[in-house]
């Protein structure tokens, strides 16, 4: 298990190199240059050319990329073109609010999704099951940013209950709408997955055995079915995290949240190559680490998975 | 005699193929939700296709009429009017045409590219498989929407760039799905049997593997269109897609956002349209999956 963890952490290295190469490439081979963005529309052509030369933008792509990697290895990821501050200063100062948003959204999604999923499965084909399925399908198909706008219209403009932007003193009230926006879509997929897994495990032989032995319905649901049904749900939570991080870009811009998402989009738009690369690298590492955590947790909860790792047979079809 | 046998075979194959499609349709029809999805989707597609017949593009969707700003829904303007007095219903119809085109095109491109890569690496396996899948892992390390935003923002706004961005961002996930579907088939006994008969790789891929994997690809494609339409809207919302004054569902939402204190209809209807399209595509996808899933065959 330890060996496996180590191996997976080693895999982070090529991913880091790959992701930085991809982002660097996307930013470099597309139109526009940073000097124009930094100096603004009033700059002359000579000034722009001079600054580009000074920043080494005229060097070949690979030279620039390897210079970046060389500096990055020593811990220097560059300074932002816009703020002139080291890129990770900005990232760390903004990460807190995004992280809180992400964790809260996942928690809310689980709290909504798992119980409703269980009830739907236990009372299959009932009115509750039907309604929750329809609602889950709807929320899975709704664009997140539209949901955010509708929540603002309803809760801020009509009812005047909640603040629509992150201004003034930040209270828990500020988090309600962004968290709801981010969590409802994930909750929908958790509901559907929990339901279908519960239905599958309820039909398993060991559940029938437990029933035959006279176990109560509560024991059967919570001890025998739920434990197994929740396994794939953990994977979904891991996958959702990436989805949430993508979603925060839009949600943060709608609610004016000074987080990582709004930083990323602002950097992309102003051709701030070091800042963009750092933001996306950071998100990618986070994403990979969470996937690893999910895999490890999976092995911890499900002895069958652990046994497979122990044999060293890592190759899977997924 | 020999000739006769050869003539019968293609017919027999054609009959079996038709039988499969019919069987899928028969099972698909049984699911009420899937049929609701299919009907809704057809209605939306028809409206988008005949948008020019229902309303007039220049007159209703583009021309500014400042005396008719922010009207509530009425018989004349079923979805109300926007900040320039343009008919929202008409803009939604023409806008969904753009969104649907982008969504379908991007999905089609990524489906073709990804299933080609997926089937090749799954069949040949080995080192190529390892390298290609590691590259896909790298791309998947970046959240899909973020990757699409990064590509399209760097390329600059516009429909063509949006399609490129959406296609690239969707390829890694799609490749993984097709690869794993094909890996399952490659291990089947009938493929092994075909190999032991001495059939060529090309023959095995064309006759045994692709026909059996096509179901997974179709289902994935349907679901993908829904995701792509949502992503199209999201990117257009950020100003990266169709440029004004031409309508697009996402950019309509971004316009209406500034005026939502005055009128909510500009936000409500384009969003509901996106949700309806995505929902019906998901329902059809679910129905297709159930209809094609061999596990449910009795």
Structure, described:
- The complex is a heterodimer of chains A (318) and B (298).
- Chain A has 318 residues and is mostly helical.
- Chain A has helices spanning 2-28, 34-39, 45-54, 61-73, 87-122, 127-141, 144-158, 172-202, 205-212, 217-255, 260-269, 273-301, 303-311.
- In chain A, helix 7 (144-158) packs across helix 10 and helix 8 packs antiparallel against helix 10 (217-255).
- The two termini of chain A are 20 Å apart.
- Residues 312-318 of chain A have low confidence and may be disordered.
- With 298 residues, chain B is an all-alpha fold.
- Chain B contains 12 helices and no strands.
- Chain B has helices at 2-30, 32-49, 51-54, 57-62, 88-124, 126-141, 144-155, 159-186, 189-197, 201-237, 249-257, 265-292.
- In chain B, helix 8 runs antiparallel to helix 10 (201-237).
- Chain B is elongated, with a radius of gyration of 23 Å.
- The two termini of chain B are 38 Å apart.
- Residues 1-6 of chain B have low confidence and may be disordered.
- The interface between A and B is large, with 48 and 46 residues.
């Amino acid at each position: 298990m330890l060996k496996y963890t180590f191996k997976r952490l080693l895999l982070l290295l090529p991913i880091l190199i790959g992701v930085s190469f991809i982002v660097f490439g996307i930013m470099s081979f597309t139109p526009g240059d940073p000097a124009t963005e930094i100096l603004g529309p009033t700059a002359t052509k000579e000034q722009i050319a001079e600054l580009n030369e000074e920043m080494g933008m005229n060097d070949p792509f690979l030279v620039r990329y390897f210079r970046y990697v060389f500096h990055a290895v020593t811990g220097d990821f560059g300074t932002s073109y816009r703020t002139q501050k080291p890129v990770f200063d900005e990232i760390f100062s903004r990460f807190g609010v995004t992280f809180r948003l992400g964790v809260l959204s996942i928690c809310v999604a689980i709290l909504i999704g798992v119980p409703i999923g269980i009830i739907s499965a236990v009372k299959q084909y009932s009115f509750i099951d039907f309604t929750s399925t329809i609602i889950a399908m709807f929320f899975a198909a709704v664009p997140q940013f539209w949901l955010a706008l509708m929540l603002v219209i309803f809760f801020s403009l009509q009812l005047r209950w909640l603040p629509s932007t992150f201004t003034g003193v930040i209270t828990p009230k500020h988090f309600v709408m962004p968290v709801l926006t981010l969590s409802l879509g994930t909750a929908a997929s958790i509901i559907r997955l929990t339901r279908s897994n519960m239905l599958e495990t309820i039909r398993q032989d060991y559940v029938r055995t437990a029933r035959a032995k006279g176990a109560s319905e509560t024991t059967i649901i919570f001890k025998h079915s739920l434990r197994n049904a929740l396994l794939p749900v953990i994977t979904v939570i891991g996958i959702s995290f990436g989805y949430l991080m993508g979603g925060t870009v839009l949600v943060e811009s709608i609610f004016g949240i000074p987080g990582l998402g709004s930083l990323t989009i602002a950097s992309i738009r102003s051709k701030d190559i070091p800042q963009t690369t750092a933001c996306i690298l950071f998100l990618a590492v986070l994403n990979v680490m969470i996937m690893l955590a999910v895999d490890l947790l999976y092995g911890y909860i499900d002895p069958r998975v652990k046994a497979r790792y122990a044999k060293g047979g890592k190759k899977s079809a997924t | 005699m020999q000739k006769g046998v050869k003539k019968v075979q293609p017919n027999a194959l054609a009959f079996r193929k038709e039988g499969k499609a019919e069987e899928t349709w028969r099972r698909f029809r049984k699911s009420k939700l899937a049929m609701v999805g299919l009907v809704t989707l057809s209605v939306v597609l028809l409206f988008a296709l005949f948008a020019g017949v229902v309303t007039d593009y220049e007159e209703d969707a583009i021309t500014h009429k400042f005396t008719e700003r922010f009207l509530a829904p009425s018989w004349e303007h079923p979805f109300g009017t926007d900040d320039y007095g343009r008919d929202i219903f008409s803009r939604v119809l023409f806008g969904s045409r753009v969104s649907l085109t982008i969504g379908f095109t991007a999905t089609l491109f990524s489906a073709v590219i990804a299933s080609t890569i997926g089937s090749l690496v799954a069949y040949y396996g080995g080192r190529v498989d390892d390298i290609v899948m590691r590259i896909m892992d790298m791309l998947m390390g970046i959240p899909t929407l973020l990757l699409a935003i990064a590509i399209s923002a760097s390329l600059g706004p516009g429909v063509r760039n949006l399609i490129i961005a959406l296609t690239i961002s969707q390829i890694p996930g799609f490749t993984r799905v097709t690869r794993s579907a094909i890996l399952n088939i490659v291990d089947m006994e009938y493929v092994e049997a075909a190999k032991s008969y001495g059939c060529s790789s090309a023959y095995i891929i064309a006759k045994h593997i692709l026909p059996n994997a096509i179901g997974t690809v179709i289902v994935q494609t349907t679901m993908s269109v829904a995701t792509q339409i949502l992503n199209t809207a999201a990117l257009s919302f950020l100003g990266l897609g169709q440029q004004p004054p031409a309508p697009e569902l996402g950019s309509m939402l971004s316009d209406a956002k500034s005026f939502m204190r005055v009128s909510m209809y500009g936000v409500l209807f384009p969003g509901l349209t996106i949700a309806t399209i995505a929902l019906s595509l998901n329902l059809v996808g679910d129905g297709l999956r159930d209809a094609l899933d061999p596990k449910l065959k009795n």
